[in-house]
Amino acid sequence: MAQKVTLAKALNMGLRKAMEDDPKVLLMGEDVGKLGGVFRITDGLQKDFGEDRVIDSPLAESGIVGTAVGLALRGYRPVVEIQFDGFVYPAYDQIVCQVAKIHYRSQGKLKMPMVIRIPFGGGIGAVEHHSESPEAQFAHTPGLKVVACSNPVDGYWMIQQAIKSDDPVIFLEPKRQYHADKADLDETATPEPLFRSRVVRAGGDVTVLAYGPTVKTALSAAEAAAGEGRSLEVIDLRTLSPLDMAPVYESVRRTGRVVVTHEAHVNLGIGAELAARITEECFYSLEAPVLRVGAFDAPYPPSRIEEDFLPDLDRVLDAVDRSLGF
Amino acid sequence: MTHNGFGPDLVEVFGPSQQDGGPELVQLLTPEGERVDHPDFRFDTGGEPEDEVVRGFYRDMVLTRRIDVEATALQRHGELGIWAQLLGQEAAQVGAGRALRPQDFVFPTYREHGVAWCRGVDPLNLLGLFRGVDQGGWDPAANNFGLYTIVIGAQTLHATGYAMGMQRDGVVGTGDPDRDAAVVAHFGDGASSQGDVNEAFIFAASYNAPVVFFCQNNQWAISEPIERQTRIPLYQRALGFGFPGVRVDGNDVLATYAVTQAALQRARDGQGPTFVEAYTYRMGAHTTTDDPTRYRLSDDLERWKLKDPIARVEVYLRRNGLAGDDFFAAVQEEADDLGVHLREGCKALPDPQPLSMFDHVYAEMTEELAAQRDGFAAYLDSFEGAR
Fold first, then answer.
1. pLDDT tens digits, B174-195
2. A178 and A211 fall within a common domain
3. Where would I find the Transketolase-like pyrimidine-binding domain in this sequence (chain A) (predicted)?
4. What is the predicted pLDDT for the residue at A1?
């Protein structure tokens, strides 16, 4: 019963399924109603579930997340859409001080089952504030869980699993993939657990860690490297907080070499945490230091040069060369 | 007087700045203890004998003040790290608290000890946060009283969202008095400058949410006077957001009760939000770490002492023969008992165990956090006789 769908369509189907399964699930955000969201992820849902369940909000991100806190306290499971990554910051206080801490503060008496969907990453030729990768800021906050999907099949399952979670989940969607590649989606399959990373290409020479938009980059790099006789193992991390390190350690103990790639700035990014953990756990297996390929530590540049700013196939392969050169 | 085509100036629209709250102040009991009528708001006890209700308010206010006095003393004795004082705001809180029905829900700041009292929260549970043994020691679902919120104004959005949930639950505007519910969002004059509060106004207005925005304007945000937050009377702001605002004498428990009751009923009936500005004065410091002598004159304090919320009710009860010495002595005795309960109970509050810091970070514990906890436990165990 598989059908070919884009990530945007898969997320839309996943949201629809979650709303059908649980009447407490609500969607909320700017333009999510009639328009279906600026990326059309909520297309048609207000028409089918009504304005009480698919809520067009005033243009105020703190207001969106703050009222979603109240809805969650009342027993709802709000799924909020932040229109673009760079617009999440007005809600940062509510996310960090309230969403992340209410379960803790109440000693477990209050649950905060909220999903905050954020289209993230660049590559769409957008203006400033529309191409950011703020994941480390949320992964650094105890109380939040942070995941990133990289493909349509994961998008369909992960959004439903995130909505079922009793913990708040920051759900990152690689916006440049929304309408790109299609994949076969079998809605009758059994998904793997949400907070698990996955080897998406087996290899033996270098381990490449990626998530969200860079999974495709890493897979392309692995394909190109194979032509040169180099075997890259690619792991899609999927979950950034908590990190699922077991498959990473297993891989690194075989390859001894690691390249991490993400679109976020390298400084104090997820890659830095991965490097630290790998060094602690796999010190005697390492043949080279953990190398990071990410955005430079400059603000997101004008879009005409964004492909120079973002990690690409060649920069990943360059890091692979350097790793093998040790 | 106009400003070059920009319309009338502020004084023309809002009148001169009024130190005493102005003629718009809703009052039912004067500082001298005299009952007065108001054309729009009346003291409706819902069939309960009026004198009994007023005696109840008196008792609530005396006990609330005792909680505050005891907690302040406990801080001075080193038993609490800090305490947020409510001295002078007893009428605002008891009036607002007693106007609630069981099915209503309250989102407090960190100073609503009097509302907590009215909701039936054991005041001992309020001390845990300030002693540092927990971050909110009561179950919000037990009394429909949320946890104290420290970040200024953040809870007004939670209140609005909760009210939106009530709308979806079909408990607004049904006409059933035991079913229809509303939310009260507490905040202060300082919070009125916060973006979250203004966003809460907009969301509540847009969705016609059943929420009462109850602002205790105690004139001071730590050291900053109300003039730093607003150029117009706060209650006037509501109109700009699209719902009514009213200024009530926050030191008059009857008026605060009547106005909050009317605002709550409006919300329960599905008529949307109301802004209530309870005009009062912070007689104490912001918290026990604050020193008001650095930034305000004692003249104000002396003037507000004459408007004490408890004294006027006592005068009213005595003058009208509604309560005698026996009643006042009994309330005093009850306050003394409450004092003992707080002093002894506070010192007996157990410190949390170090490993409890890992509890409830998540509804579903993560493997990596469990590993951190286990590592710390092993570290603690490595000290001889440590545990």
1. 999 999 999 999 999 999 999 9
2. no
3. 5-180
4. 67
Quick check: bond before B352 cis, omega within 30? no
Label residue B343 by pLDDT band (50, 70, 90). Answer: very high
Asked if residue A123 lies in contact with residue A130, where contact means CB atoms within 8 angstroms, the answer is no
Three-state SS at A78: strand
Domain count, chain A: 2
CATH number belonging to domain B21-348: 3.40.50.970
B164 to B13, B22, B80, B97: CA distances (angstroms): 34, 34, 37, 21
Among the candidates A185, A212, A241, a domain finishes at A185
| Mean pLDDT of the region B27-45 | 96
Cβ–Cβ below 8 Å for B158 and A66: yes
Question: Among A146-155, B19-28, B41-50, B243-252, whose mean pLDDT is lowest?
Answer: B19-28
The pair of three-digit structure tokens given for residue B230, joined into one six-digit string: 């607003």
Cβ distance of B200 and A74 shorter than 8 Å: no
Q: What percent of chain A has pLDDT over 70?
A: 100
Q: Which domain holds residue A111?
A: 3-185
Confidence at residue B386, expressed as pLDDT on a 0 to 100 scale:
63
Minimal Cα distance from A145: which residue of B?
Answer: B362
For residue B14, how many other CB atoms are within 10 A of its CB? 16
Same-domain pairing of A176 and A242: no
Same domain, A217 and A181: no
Task: Kindly indicate the confidence band of residue B3, based on its pLDDT and cuts at 50, 70 and 90.
Answer: low
Among B140, B160, B202, the residue with its CB nearest the CB of A110 is B140
- For residue A58, the chain B residues in CB contact (below 8 A) are 199, 202-203, 206
Distance of residue B203 Cα from the nearest chain A Cα, in angstroms: 7
Host H or E run for residue A106: none
Residues A181 and A202 in one domain: no
Q: Annotated active-site positions of B, please?
A: 282, 286, 295
Q: Picking from A41-50, B13-22, B175-184, B343-352, which range would have the lowest pLDDT averaged per residue?
A: B13-22
d(CA B57, CA A75): 33
Question: Are A262 and A312 found together in one domain?
Answer: yes
Q: Which residues of A fall within a CB distance of 8 Å from B362?
A: 103, 143, 145, 167
DSSP state of B145: B
| A127 shares its domain with A267 | no
ipTM of this predicted complex? 0.97
Chain A nearest-CA distance from B346, in A, is 19
Q: Please give the full DSSP string across A200-266, using - where no structure is assigned.
A: EE--SSEEEEE-TTHHHHHHHHHHHHHHTT--EEEEE--EEETB--HHHHHHHHHH--EEEEEEEES
Asked if B135 and B154 touch (Cβ cutoff 8 Å), the reply is: no
Find the distance separating the first CA and the last CA of chain B, reported in whole Å. Answer: 76
Q: CB distance B166–A74 less than 8 Å?
A: yes
Q: Answer yes or no: do A97 and B135 touch at CB < 8 A.
A: no
* CATH number assigned to the domain comprising residue A14: 3.40.50.970
Q: Do B199 and A107 touch (CB under 8 A)?
A: no
Angle, helices A313-325/A214-227, rounded to nearest 10 degrees: 60
Q: Do A43 and A169 share a domain, yes or no?
A: yes
In the chain, the amino acid numbered B346 is: C
Side chain identity, residue B333: E
Question: What number is the average pLDDT over the span A64-82?
Answer: 98
A190 inside domain: no
| Confidence class for position A161, pLDDT limits 50, 70, 90 | very high
Residues 245-304 of A with CB under 8 A from B: 245
pLDDT surpassing 90 at residue B8: no
A277: exposed, middle or buried (Cβ count in 10 Å: 0-12, 13-18, 19+): middle
